[in-house]
Amino acid sequence: xxxxxETLSERMTSSVGTRLxxxxxxxxxxxxxxxVALVSFGFGGGAGDMQHEGEHDAGSGTGGGGGGMSVxxxxxxxxxxxxxxxxxxxxxxxxxxPLACIAGYSLPKIVRALxx
Length: 116
Description:
38% strand, transmembrane
């Protein structure tokens, strides 16, 4: 089972990683742009086997799973001094608001723990 998960994860990350992070050129309002995304994958697998002597002892097991996400972070557009990055503000807010809440919640606890 673990070999299947390893093979799948190697194929996914080696073949699609860069192509998903930097998309194909698109034309927006007559300007060519290259979209940029933060891409993440995760895979896991499991196995099991338990055999004990006795009436009700038995065992078996297997499992596996995976997932991924993509967050559009911006685009590269031509500028007067070469390509420049234009961030996707909606994605930035979507990510930064929860991070700010976590920081606001945990920072006072960290300070209190350090004072003790």
